[in-house]
Amino acid sequence: MPAPIRLRELIRTIRTARTQAEEREMIQKECAAIRSSFREEDNTYRCRNVAKLLYMHMLGYPAHFGQLECLKLIASQKFTDKRIGYLGAMLLLDERQDVHLLMTNCIKNDLNHSTQYVQGLALCTLGCMGSSEMCRDLAGEVEKLLKTSNSYLRKKAALCAVHVIRKVPELMEMFLPATKNLLSEKNHGVLHTSVVLLTEMCERSPDMLSHFRKLVPQLVRILKNLIMSGYSPEHDVSGISDPFLQVRILRLLRILGRSDDDSSEAMNDILAQVATNTETSKNVGNAILYETVLTIMDIKSESGLRVLAINILGRFLLNNDKNIRYVALTSLLKTVQTDHNAVQRHRSTIVDCLKDLDVSIKRRAMELSFALVNGNNIRGMMKELLYFLDSCDPDFKADCASGVFLAAEKYAPSKRWHIDTIMRVLTTSGSYVRDDSVPNLIQLITNSVEMHAYTVQRLYKALLDDISQQPLVQVSSWCIGEYGDLLVSGQCEEEEPIQVTEDEVLDVLEGLLVSNLSTPVTRGYSLTAIMKLSTRFSSVNRIKKVVSIYGSSIDVELQQRAVEYNAMFKKYDHMRPALLERMPIMEKSSSNGPTEMVQTNGETEPSALESKHPPPVTQPTNQANDLLDLLGGNDVGPVIQTSMPTKPASSGGELLDLLGDLSLTGGPTSAPVSTGPPPQPGFLLDGLSSQNLFNDISAAGIPSMTAYNKNGLKIEFTFQRATPNPNIAVITIHASNTTDADMTEFVFQAAVPKTFQLQLLSPSSNVVPALNQGTVTQVIRVLNPQKQQLRMRIKLMYSHKGSAVQDLAEVNNFPPQAWQ
């Protein structure tokens, strides 16, 4: 058989291939020749064939058929064969293949070989791919080589010991005696590998960490000698003596000094020396300084040393190398919480990084800039960040807008500044803001009573300029609907008022309804705003026409709104001013914020405070939310809540008639009306006028029951039937108080399963008199079309002798006549 081609010739031939297919053909042809040579047990050219196979493996072609040939080369007595055999084993074998176990005996023999280079090959292979079984079997030989006087073998044995410890941590103590002596070695290679071994042992064992803390003075001496030593050609890199060893020692000092006062104190001086004496003109010095900074920040260092470390990072920000600037920004971001004032000194440099062309640096600079914002610099920082928001890439706008919102909410110097800032964000980047930005701004505007005229005028101007930013359009529509009368009257004191007519305002809102830029949610805001203006403007007939047009809209949501608003004009016109009055000041929910989730036809979507009625959360809604918590699940039935006793009962009844289907099944809602179609058999109060609300009921001989009796508060239920609809049970609660003090702020709430509909009317009072001197009554109407057994959960809240009381109870013992 002719001699196979040499490796150099194979490489040259493969490089002449013009296509991938041509290269594959050459490789397959050579692999076939190599296989034939292996089958013939050709010992002469085995080494050459394995070498070529390793090159093919590096190119990504399969070479597993050469594994056993590697073992044969390892068993050879020739050094050239062993070298290729061990290299092949490291590349082609790992602990997942059982073949590697056949090497154990060969490695053991070579570890005891008389030639140091053969011993070095065995140590490298064991340290590269030794399994836990091999490490257990050969750990003794490695430990012996750690104690040898040969520095070449000691450094390789130390690295092999690192691999053994990773595979079998319990063998760590075996290397403890030998490791202590390694630090006294003068050879830099042994020193380097010994520091790596010490680092591995300290990271894996708290006991070892405590044991090696006494070596800190010795490590400090080694580091000091490196800094103070003169020029050494064999270790010098760009004028710095052995930077690799310096970096390794700094990392080990960081581990040893963490959470330990004595060790930190011992290394403070040397860290200061490294930080001040290291040359920064070359990248080598910057690498050492960076490790020094990380060590200073991680140990219990002195405050002056920490300031020095942050100043080093500040100098890094001025470096031309982008990687160094990025590393500095990342490190400052980690330390800004603990050393805020020191980082603040470099604020202008950090802000300048926002203009960097590199995307990664800009992102880190943006995150760090937001971390530096506080009450003292909020105006200046927001000016820079808003300028950045105007010019940054779309990828940054969402995070930047979110950061501006959070910072403005936390540190706003005034409400006007807060509103102006958020409006600026919505104007420039409205399409990128978070979903809750609309309800948050609506809540802010609602709670800033003195800013209503100014805000609605600013938003109206913004709407005239641009209607493409949907969040801005939604907020503007809501504010115009809520405060349109202030806009038309020109009562703005903060800036020069503008002259706007009612028709101009309605033209703008009608334009939003027909605009192709408007989303369905935006159209809903606009229609609701127009409806609310019917009580603030005199152009009621025009508004009626607009609302009636959308009663046949193809958008189901918009159609339902229009139909209900039409009903309000026709059937409940006398209630319209009360229903569309201005929203009260809202309290922000601490859990989810103003944006809650509304269940609509089985799909969960953000309501964004937009519903059939003015968006902000009102007190009845909060009570309804409490009912959801009360039931604690998805079996909540629709609850219809009336107004509190400040309104007449008759108006409350008709309000219920209009808004009969309040669905709370999907979670807390932020508006008093659901968006789904009304369930059958219809509204609870359909066909009943407010005058007949309590007349069309008949006593059915249903016995009364005690639903609650605790802490002096007694709740009794009496039952009656509604005459027009026998499926409706009318329950009257009677709350009495046997204690010697009045129960004030009394609130009764109830919830029923999904198969029922419950309507809670206004109570007669919110004070339960002491000593049974009177009772508080409240009417509950329950629709039970399926005649199922009635179950109810109740929640009671009141103040008694200055303390708030809250209690829950479940009522399941209703008399059969009440639900059959």
SSE topology:
Elements: H1 7-15, H2 20-39, H3 46-59, H4 67-75, H5 79-92, H6 104-111, H7 116-129, H8 132-146, H9 151-167, H10 176-182, H11 188-204, H12 206-212, H13 216-228, E1 236-237, E2 240-241, H14 243-257, H15 261-277, H16 283-298, H17 303-316, H18 322-335, H19 340-344, H20 347-352, H21 359-372, H22 378-391, H23 394-411, H24 415-429, H25 437-447, H26 452-465, H27 470-489, H28 502-514, H29 520-533, H30 540-549, H31 556-570, H32 576-579, E3 597-600, E4 603-606, H33 619-631, E5 639-641, H34 649-658, E6 697-698, E7 705-710, E8 713-722, E9 728-737, E10 743-751, E11 757-760, E12 776-783, E13 792-800, E14 803-811
Parallel strand pairs: 5-11
Antiparallel strand pairs: 1-2, 3-4, 6-8, 7-8, 8-9, 9-12, 10-13, 11-12, 13-14
Helix pairs in contact: 2-3, 3-5, 4-5, 5-7, 6-7, 6-8, 7-9, 8-9, 9-11, 11-12, 11-14, 13-14, 13-15, 14-16, 15-16, 15-17, 16-17, 16-18, 17-18, 18-21, 21-23, 22-23, 22-24, 23-24, 25-27, 26-27, 27-28, 27-29, 28-29, 29-30, 29-31, 30-31
